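task queued by scheduler; priority normal; single chain, no ligands, no partner chains; default sampling; output format set to C-alpha cells
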Amino acid sequence: MIKLLVHTITSKRDMNGNCYHSATFTSTVSGSSFNMPDTGGENNATHFARKAGLNWDEISSTQATLPIRQYNAIVKSWKFITWEDAERAIVALTEQVPT
C-alpha cells in the first residue's frame, strides 16, 4: 500500500549551470503534506523517505523540471526544514489513522 507521495521539483539550470531541488511529501494515510524547499538532489527526497522507515512499495515519486523563475516563484514561500525535522514529519504523516 502506498503511504507517501513524494513530488520533487527541479529547476532548469541557471546562468551558472546550477539547478535546485525541492519536494512535497503527501501522506495517502492522512492527506496531510509538507514542503521541503531544499532537498540537495533530485533523488534525495525519495531516499530520505526510505531512511524514515518506509519500504519502496510504500512510496510513489514523481518529478517535474521547471524554468528557474517559475521554480523560484513556487518555493520562495516554503519554510526551511532540516532533514531531521523532515524525518519526524514523514513518520508522523504515515502513522496517522484516517478519520
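post-processing summary
- The mean pLDDT is 89.
- The beta strands are 4-11, 21-27, 33-36, 59-66.
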